[in-house]
Design goal:
This protein is an alpha+beta fold and 167 residues long. The chain is 23% helix and 27% strand. It has 2 domains: 93 residues, Glycoprotein, Type 4 Pilin (2-Layer Sandwich), CATH 3.30.700.20; 65 residues, Hypothetical protein ph0010, domain 2 (Dna Ligase, domain 1, 2-Layer Sandwich).
């Protein structure tokens, strides 16, 4: 969280992209997808992430996603300098994706879900685990379909994942 906060603050205040810490602590040396979520006064303010790693290490993944959550989430205007002190940060590091064959293998409290179109595999919706108000796998799937523009009758592949959450 501290790295996410420092990354967004450096970008918003100075326009600079924070470098990964050197030497790189072992916790950041792995490659993993992650999501950075911002809240302001308890309300969602931005959330961007990667399902699978795209950067060389977790530190770079967190830095990139923190900046994107604050400046490129299409649902929100970019974070301003004045808002920075009021932001709360959550970083969720994703475990590996596991394909599942049925809805019964999903659990919205313990697993996030990726719904991928079987016809148009570039269409994917993702939902993190343990989101308030999402109480069933069917809700997870419906939300993911909507986010990805996947029709309700379109065949899909389902994947689940666990996260390590840092607040």
């Amino acid at each position: 969280m501290k790295l996410a906060k420092e990354a967004l603050e450096a970008y918003v205040k100075e326009g600079t992209i924070l470098k990964a810490p050197e030497p790189l602590p072992s916790v950041f040396a792995v490659r993993a997808g992650c999501f950075v979520t911002l809240h302001e006064s308890g309300e969602l303010r931005g959330c961007i992430g990667t399902i699978e790693p795209v950067m060389d290490n977790l530190a770079e993944e967190i830095i990139s996603n923190a900046i994107a959550a604050g400046t490129r989430d299409p649902r929100f205007r970019p974070v301003t300098k004045e808002e920075l002190p009021a932001l709360d940060y959550t970083v969720e590091v994703l475990g590996p994706l596991e394909e599942v064959m049925s809805v019964e293998e999903l659990d919205p409290r313990n697993y996030g879900v990726v719904v991928q179109s079987a016809i148009r595999p570039y269409r994917k919706g993702v939902l993190l685990p343990d989101i308030e108000g999402v109480d069933s796998p069917e809700q997870q799937i419906r939300i993911c379909r909507m986010k990805a523009g996947i029709a309700t009758n379109e065949p899909v592949r389902l994947f689940r994942f666990k996260t390590e959450k840092y607040r």
